[in-house]
Amino acid sequence: xxxxxxxxxxxxxxxxxxxxxxxxxxxxxxxxxxxxxxxxxxxxxxxxxxxxxxxxxxxxxxxxxxxxxxx
Length: 71
Known about the structure:
Blueprint: H1 3-13, H2 18-25, H3 29-37, H4 47-57
Helix pairs in contact: 2-3
């Protein structure tokens, strides 16, 4: 699995609000939704976006290399 898909699964499981994430990270909502919210799109996060999203989540990008178990 790739990092974007793992982050998407994590954000869905934790019910992370993508609008709040967009405001906090400066990443446009449409880009976040295309990467993390819409399972029919296959838009990978850029490296910069992945780091911003992980900082917002309080996680490390490395944690999403393998599928992350949601607690």
